[in-house]
Specification:
255 residues; alpha+beta; Alpha-Beta Plaits; 5 helices
Length: 255
């Protein structure tokens, strides 16, 4: 019996060898690989909604996509196994399940959590160099945390975002719920930030700004002035993409 289903996929991927999530002709992308595999297994094309359109080199531990399909009932376990065989090892499907018809991976999400990894030492770690930003000069984590706290709440992040082409009037107001730097063993520093949504390059811009403060190249109280300037050139250079990972996406009906 044919009927319509709304399907949610929770997946993880290493972004090193992808030119981002969004499909782009002529280059390898997460969406392109996933859509091709779904079409091969399901025998029909699908339109994917995604929680976070990660940039080239950015990773995901808890990415979410959704799509609607007409036809025979989807066998979630069989589909997951088939997709992992076709998309691995760079992409792996964690879970597939049917969800309510009103679920949309992008528009239903209420919070995204990202993590950025730094190695603050004289010597880089070649085994982890594609998932962390290596910085030689000493960083003041306390100052970086004082800086991060100034981003909390609702702000216009025009200065910290790259505005998408053709969206000159789109609002760049976002609400930061959590922002914290954590010292970790072996000279590593980890940044976690959660918000209702993020605009393009926003997390990497905030990381770059905090690192500039941690290196004593600018004061923490510059945050307010840069936010008020609403000028992309006033923020510090952005952090490289490879240290960034989408950790988790929260939805209203999550347990």
């Amino acid at each position: 019996m044919a009927f319509a289903q709304n399907i949610r996929i929770d997946l993880t991927y290493k972004g090193t060898r992808f030119r981002g999530f969004a499909e782009n002709p002529g280059v390898r992308t997460v969406e392109g690989e996933l859509r091709s595999a779904l079409q091969q297994v399901l025998g029909q094309s699908v339109d994917l909604a995604v929680a976070g359109r990660t940039d080239a080199g950015v990773h995901a531990l808890g990415q979410v996509v959704s799509f609607r399909i007409d036809g025979a009932e989807v066998d979630s376990e069989r589909l997951r196994n088939s997709l992992n065989r076709l998309c691995g090892p760079d992409i792996q499907i964690r879970e597939i399940r049917e969800v309510d018809t009103d679920f949309d991976a992008r528009f239903t999400a209420v919070q995204r959590l990202y993590r950025y990894n730094l190695l603050n030492s004289l010597i880089a770690d070649p085994l982890l160099s594609d998932i962390e930003w290596h910085i030689k000069e000493p960083l003041d984590v306390e100052e970086m945390n004082r800086t991060a706290q100034r981003f909390l709440g609702e702000h216009d992040f025009t200065s910290f975002c790259r505005r998408p082409k053709g969206q000159t009037g789109a609002s760049l107001v976002r609400t930061i719920h959590h922002a914290q730097w954590h010292p970790r063993p072996q000279q590593r520093i980890e940044f976690e930030i959660a918000a209702n949504a993020f605009c393009h390059q926003m997390v990497r811009s905030i990381v770059g700004f905090c690192v500039s403060v941690g290196a004593h190249k600018r004061p923490a109280h510059d945050v307010e002035a840069v936010l008020n300037a609403r000028d992309r050139s006033s923020a510090a250079p952005i952090a490289p993409p490879h240290g960034l990972t989408l950790i988790h996406v929260t939805y209203p009906k999550d347990d």
